[in-house]
Specification:
single chain, alpha+beta, Growth Hormone, Chain: A, 18 helices
């Protein structure tokens, strides 16, 4: 450190500084006086070492010395020009190889207990937090999930022409996905909470990818085969959300919960964007079966990455750096494995039933827009296949942006002292009342542009639900978040089954205004229930 000044600012935010030397290994010689030797003897030792300086706060300076020829930890008095002052370097308790510095001005520096690795020369991508690697991989899984789901909403237009399906048949095909999706919600949550989210999510992606590839073959064989394959696809996608919730409850600290969930769920929205944008091009260029073959094959790439990079828990990851592991375990709430699920306790809580019922109210409108929006654009607004796909992209882009904005706002409000309960109620109220208002305007607009605008605003405000009810499972029952999400999403899937099929029936005997009126009514009911009975506090240990 001689000849270099290291900047220290009192009361500054935590920062890390690399050693001044840019070489891979930093070798220096330090002349030290043995503190156990009489000063008059002037006995000196020459010590070669590797050094690392790490500033955890403005007043806490930690120096890690790796001795090359000295394997004892003694008390040394050294001269450093960090502040042109003498510093005491004393033996750290419980953290081998780390030293605690006493500043003349700052007094005794508290020990953070963190163990620092020598990261000099390590590429930035290897220093990227592992918990956010898990989050990004979950994001990409959900991107594929919705790509494979929404491609049918575009492909159904040429398929219905080829196979002469009416609106009721189309509604039946669209709803058949939810038959399988319904079956694996609770089962997927139990499975994830007991055997780990890594295996469950890998199973889900492989299963739904195979079903996606088989869809064109099943359609040509006949309607019953298509319904079975679509239900099989739902089985795979049904375990994704419970598995993801289980993974994030173990990997992500509470303070990062809203942002991480918002990012993962925005993968669903961007998956819809990608599917709706590329499906028309593939259909026009290669025919409608190409959508299912190309999208389904992407699951193999994701699975290869997932199996090599992901772990169900930080405890299972041998490459997780010690300081990140301590950060995760210091700030997370779900640690012990689940052996028995207290169904009686879970089902006896009013906030649990509020979550279940509001999930139903929310998903009725969401799934209608997910599966029927291209048809609405084609039949009502007069867009062709390509235009329907492209204009459907805008609401999902809005959702991706709004979900992350809402996550940032929610975490910021919590950090400023707002109660989690208040934040969840505010976010979900926006997620209910926003879509209700904009859907109510669709019957009054007189141009396609305004209709697309209302759809985009409806979906954008809907995305605030990711920081409302979708974050609430980990709030009220962190150890059973996978099971609880499976339970509430079962109600959400029932909304998809009934809502999608009912929409086909309503359109055959009524109008789009009636479709939107039902969704608006459920949004308003959900708003009342959520604000009366929900909570952001833990109610199940």
């Amino acid at each position: 450190m001689a000849g270099k000044s290291l900047p220290i600012t009192l009361n500054s935010r935590p920062k890390r500084y690399r050693p001044p030397d840019t070489s891979l290994h930093h070798h220096k010689k330090l002349i030290c006086m043995d503190s156990n030797t009489n000063v008059n003897s002037n006995k000196k030792l020459e010590l070669s070492y590797n050094y690392k300086v790490e500033f955890l706060s403005g007043s806490n300076v930690y120096v890690k010395l790796k001795s090359l020829r000295f394997d004892k930890y003694e008390v040394w008095r050294i001269r450093s020009d960090v502040k042109s002052e003498s510093y005491e370097v004393s033996k750290s308790t419980g953290v081998p190889g780390s030293f605690k510095i006493k500043e003349r001005l700052g007094g005794d520096v508290g020990d953070s207990g963190d163990e620092f690795d020598d990261e000099s020369g390590v590429p930035w991508w290897e220093e990227f937090p592992k918990r956010w690697t898990i989050v990004i991989l979950c994001f990409s899984a959900f991107l594929l999930c919705n790509m494979d789901r929404v491609n049918m909403s575009i492909a159904i237009l040429p398929m219905s022409s080829e196979f002469h399906w009416n609106s009721t048949t189309v509604g039946l095909i669209q709803s058949s996905f939810f038959w399988g999706y319904l079956l694996t919600q609770i089962a997927g949550g139990i499975w994830a909470d007991t055997v780990g989210g890594k295996r469950v999510l890998a199973f889900g992606v492989i299963w739904w990818s195979v079903a996606t590839v088989l869809t064109p073959i099943a359609a040509k064989l006949g309607l019953p085969f298509l319904l079975i394959v679509r239900a099989f696809m739902g089985v795979g996608e049904g375990v994704a959300m419970p598995a993801m919730n289980n993974l994030l409850s173990k990997w992500v600290p509470v303070a990062e919960r809203s942002r991480s969930l918002a990012l993962v769920y925005s993968g669903m929205y961007l998956g819809s964007v990608t599917g709706l944008a590329f499906s028309p091009f593939l259909i026009h260029s290669y025919g409608w079966p190409s959508v299912f073959f190309s999208f389904g094959s992407l699951g193999t790439v994701w699975t290869a990455l997932w199996l090599t990079k992901a772990y169900s828990s930080p405890l299972e990851d041998p490459e997780l750096r010690p300081h990140e592991k301590k950060l995760i375990f210091r700030n997370r709430v779900s640690e012990e494995p689940v052996k028995d699920i207290p169904w009686g306790q879970i089902l006896s809580k009013a906030p649990v039933w509020a979550l279940i019922s509001c999930h139903f109210c929310h998903n009725w409108g969401t799934f209608i827009l997910l599966t029927w929006m291209p048809t609405y654009y084609n039949q009502v607004l007069g867009f062709n296949l390509t235009e329907s796909g492209l204009f459907c992209v805008l609401p999902w882009l809005t959702m991706a942006f709004s979900a992350n904005l809402g996550g940032w706002i929610a975490d910021t409000l919590v950090s400023k002292g707002w109660s989690v309960t208040t934040v969840r109620k505010v976010m979900q109220s926006i997620g209910f009342l926003g879509p209700a208002f904009f859907l109510s305007q669709l019957s009054h607009v007189d141009s396609p542009a305004m209709a697309v605008f209302c759809m985009a605003c409806s979906q954008g405000s809907d995305a605030f639900s990711q920081s409302g009810l979708y974050s609430n499972h980990q709030d009220i029952a962190p150890r059973y978040s996978g099971v609880l999400l499976g339970l509430s999403n079962t109600a959400g899937v029932l909304a998809g089954v009934f809502g999608t099929a009912a929409t086909g029936y309503i359109l055959q005997h009524g109008s789009w205004d009636e479709v939107f009126d039902v969704a608006i009514g459920l949004y308003l009911v959900g708003t009342v229930i959520w604000n009366l009975f929900s909570t952001g506090e833990k109610i199940i240990d």
